[in-house]
Design goal:
heterodimer, A: 207 residues, mainly alpha, TorD-like, B: 66 residues
């Protein structure tokens, strides 16, 4: 057995509200990357309510209740109809569809550049373009909680990435998803997305 | 001595919105590994493989056919 000294890394635990932000980003990313399986539906169905009766708590309760009545097959079919389907899908899952053209660069180019500056990038196994909202929310999860070989980003870095790539896109996406005729379970995902997007936009303004 | 977290306006706002309770974390703790496999943002690979066909991309190509 060889004894190799390695540097000791001390990880300071995140405050619970910051960890919860990361968890919400993770959950929404997961639900946009693919439909929930039975295990995830089961855990959501058994989840505790959030305290209070604010928009986030109501949206969370709606998703928890919907998860009790949903099964993985129906969720997969709904996901396919909403985001894949034949011809043009009812709801675009790409940020570029919702962000205004404020730059000569395509949003995907700007996302690639900004991810690289943060030491991040798309894994070689992922085939989706960088502006897939599931990927962007996953990037925020990494910035909030750390992971993929990096520590949590500063609040300023999180804010910069959010404002550059998500702030303009995900409220529009949530509205489109919530209004889609094909959305049933995903109406509740849209409500959670809208409530969390509003919360993030507001909280980034506070010290 | 345990260090307390300063009660900033941001912290009060987030806690007031219900973040920081166990509900969300408990639901996600055992989430499908798909999320980390497919969507985790990993360090930039040394060599890009480029885009490959996914259902969304194939569908996009389909819409551009004349």
């Amino acid at each position: 057995m060889s004894a190799v000294a390695s540097p000791v890394q001390v990880h300071r635990p995140l405050p619970p509200e910051e960890a919860a932000r990361g968890d919400l980003y993770a959950l929404l990313a997961r639900l946009l990357v693919g439909p929930p399986d039975d295990a995830l539906l089961g855990h959501l169905a058994a989840a505790e309510r959030l305290p209070g009766d604010g928009a986030l708590a109501r949206a969370w309760a709606g998703l928890v209740d919907a998860s009790k009545a949903m099964d993985a097959d129906a969720a997969a079919e709904e996901y396919e109809q909403l985001f894949v389907g034949m011809g043009q899908s009812p709801v675009s899952i790409y940020a570029a569809s919702y962000a205004s053209a404020g730059s000569v660069d395509h949003p995907r180019v700007r996302i690639q550049r900004d991810l690289a500056a943060l030491g991040l990038g798309r894994p070689a196994t992922v085939t989706e373009p960088e502006d897939h909202l599931g990927g962007l929310l996953e990037a925020m999860r990494v910035l909030v909680k750390g992971g993929a070989g990096r520590e949590p980003a500063s609040l300023e870095e999180q804010k910069r990435f959010h404002e550059a790539h998500l702030a303009a896109a995900w409220p529009g996406f949530a509205a489109a998803l919530g209004a889609a005729r094909e959305a049933n379970y995903y109406r509740h995902v849209a409500a959670l997305c809208a409530a969390f997007a509003a919360l993030e936009a507001e909280s980034f303004k506070l010290d | 001595m345990k260090k307390t977290i300063p009660q900033t306006n941001r912290r009060k706002f987030l806690l007031g919105a219900g973040l920081g309770t166990a509900g969300v974390a408990a639901a996600i703790a055992t989430r499908s590994p798909l999320a980390t496999k497919q969507a985790e943002v990993a360090p930039e690979p040394a060599q890009q493989e480029g885009y490959r066909a996914s259902p969304h991309i194939l569908k996009y190509y389909k819409t551009t056919e004349v």
